[in-house]
Design goal:
By secondary structure, chain A is an alpha+beta fold. Chain A starts with a helix and ends in a 6-residue tail after the last strand. The chains are: A alpha+beta, B mainly alpha.
Chain lengths: 130, 388
Amino acid sequence: MKWKANLIRIALVLLLIVFGVYLYKIGKERDIFFDNKEIALDGQTYSVTSSYFVYVDGKKVGELYQDGRQATMLINGKHKIVLESLTEDGESTGQKVEYSFSMGKGGCILNVPAMLGGVKNFILPPEPVE
Amino acid sequence: MSKIINDTSIKTMHPAVKFLINFAVPILFLIFVVLCIPLSGFTNTYLTNEIIARLARDSFLILSLLIPVMAGMGMNFGIVLGAMAGQIGIIFVSDWHIIGLPGLILAMLISTPLAILLGYFCGVMLNMARGREMVTGFMLGFFMNGVYQMVVLYGMGKLIPISDPTILLPRGFGIRNAINLSGIQHSLDALIPLKIGQISIPIATFLLIAVFCLFIVWFRKTKLGQDMRTVGQDLEVARSSGINVDKTRIISIVISTVLACYGQIIFLQNIGTVNTYNSHEQVGLFAVAAILIGGASVARATIPNVFVGAILFHMVFIVSPRAGKELIGQAQLGEYFRVFVSYAIIALSLALYAWRKHVEKENLRKQTQILNRQALSSHGKAVGGNES
């Protein structure tokens, strides 16, 4: 029957559209910012301790100086960040700290002092545009 | 009486002579390549790596030419339309920052409806230009190139929202000449990597090409595939068998255009950059040249023709500039020679095919004349015998 064949075709097209939306969601890169700034969360203040080289998933993002910001783009899902401490002269001290985090809806500002201070939700929402 | 050269007499030729006639073009190219390789000075490892990379990059595009040949449409120069559709998909995916394999597949999904539309348009045009499909496809490529450039240079950013400033021209609309595809580069090639010594083999890409080859083998056995073969052999016989000839021809072009679209996306993910206004231009010409070098003709093309042609064609690409420099002192002359050969091979193959068709027609006419004369003389003898 012709209507049955057309129904199957429409269903297949809808399936492809849904698949496309799924690919969009899993493949889309979003901006993420790494802030090395003092922050107050839940009544506690987390101060800047050092400057760092920032690596995400093995790739170098850049140098993150005190009160500085770095940016990169990441897809949704789990990522690994490695912070390599720097001296005042900008040389590496050889000390590295590794963290895992998940990119998802909402937050796109990763505050390094909060992360090092053990805060669970160290990825903060974007700042409101004035 | 002049000597008749036809399929029967060719069949009675020595097998070696028959082989030389049928595969004159690939043999000439093989000789050229064999002479140029030692002159170029490239190592075997380098050549192997280059050929494997280029085979993975281009085979899909060249394979998309097989189905229109099966349907008697000749060489589909209209695959350029599919390439343009693929590029538009890539532009959208780059703007949306969709990376990796999801980005690649999404580009294919987005560009498929556009490729189907363009393929349908191409098929309708080619049906109107029956007997002149190849030159019509060539001209359609030029026409759609103009439409594509108008859309990409003026429509995108204004009518079609594009937000990424790294893709848009500084004036606020129009796409830049080159788009960096670092997000999806090698997303298919690096999916299943294999390294044998210094030779890298993109297994995933070759698997996809193998699946496509199996699809072609299977397709030939389906009803639609058989209909296309019938249409390719004789339009009138196909029509009287109840086959919708026009629809079958359009379907063959649509399939070819969609597959060329995917082939262009695979090509671009390997290269890593889209030359927005140039990448698609030589696609038809080079794919057709490659398959003809592989021993295909306008009426017959097989899967081995694709791979043999791709290897020989790309070998010429790789070795001729260096060989030209060693021989003549200027690499540019070697490059000119390669471009000349690419265009000349298409002309030579088409001329050979036209010559052979003309000879067969002439021989058929002469045979018919001989038979008529024999019939008349035997009838005359019979009448004379009766009268006496």
